[in-house]
Give the backbone structure.
Amino acid sequence: MASKKKYIVASVTLGVIAMASGLLIGGANIITKDSIKKNQEKKIASGISEIYGKNALISKKIDVKADTFANVYKTVEQYYEVSDKDNNKQGYAFRTNGSNAYGKITLIVGFDETTHAFKGISIVVDEQTYNTTLEDNYISLVNKGERDVDDVKCGATFGAKLVKEMINEATSAAEELWKE
Amino acid sequence: MAKGKTKQNFLKGIVIENPLFVSILGTCPALATTKTLEAALGMGILFTIVLVCSNMLVSLLRKLIPEEIRTPAYIVIIATFVTIVKMLTNAFLPELYSSLGVFISLIVVNCIVLGRAEAYASKNKVFDSLIDALGMGVGYTLALLSMAFFRELLGTGGFTIGQIFTFIPKAKLTIIPAPYTISLFSNPVGAFIVFGLILAVLAFIKNRKDEYKAYLVKQEKIKKQQEALAAQQANTDGGNK
């Protein structure tokens, strides 16, 4: 009887602690969610400027649903129609989001309107352990044209595989979009 | 707790029981987040906030948490504070959040936080636990800063501020000209070298101190022996006369 009571007390205590933790995290989420969303939008806009130049603007945002493309892509979440200030279309930029045991990565992969070719990549979120190497060893070199886009290098094979998959999916989605 | 004891409790985390340089705990973020002084300071502050909050709550609930669920309860408490700190950093200091990446989440598994909860906060009063956490937090932050100081100086040739803490105006101080910088120190391998060298210097200082103490003890012993001999001699001389 005594051991039964002991287990009940332990379970209830842990339950109460977990509930209080949930409430605290929920409260923090309410306080921070708008700022986090705003920061992410700012980062996407600056990523678009990095790829297409300072005058580039997002003229249209399209959420990728299962029926948006013939193929269903795991990582492509959203794509943007990018225009300049005079409303001339510059191309399409794809937001891809992937994660593995090392953490989450969100990239913007841009394609040119006239050539339909790959134009550049920028990082929105990189929570991977080797987060500086993705920028230093791969993205900055690809954007300068000093490294091939397929030759992903970001510190660990595991992370590089994920980045490659994300870029391949964005490329396939772009090809499909141009076909339409 | 007496004022002197409080001071001692605070200072032990900085010098005698420094978590990084003496206990060699929390080395993973120490190697990864000490590339720049600003990142190291950011990590130190976030770590101290989590440690202070978790230590205080663990101490407050120490009599209510049954023995059997102590560790899972501490983990839940620590994880809650880490999640809140992570959300706040992402919302209000996005540059620090991007710079530290996964290492903010990894504070949950930092042995120092769980170690202090288990070894100190679960057995002591809230105020004592707060002082202990502050001492350990400041000690860890200073250790990170000392590593970052050498890494940023040797790796980039100077110090940059305002890159992560964007509310500070951006400024760069160059001390070593670019051709003489060693980029190796900005890489993880450089962190290992700096960490190893600091530990070696600290070990050298400690050994010298210990040797000096041993020398003083030996001298004292010899002095006492000589005094005893002199006294014995005087006694013998007195007897002969």
In short: Residues 40-179 of chain A form one domain. The longest helix of chain A spans residues 2-52. The interface with chain B takes residues 6, 9-10, 13-14, 17-18, 21, 24-25, 28-29, 31-33, 35-36, 39, 43, 102-103, 125-129, 131-132 of chain A (CB under 8 Å). The helical segments of chain A are 2-52, 131-143, 157-179.
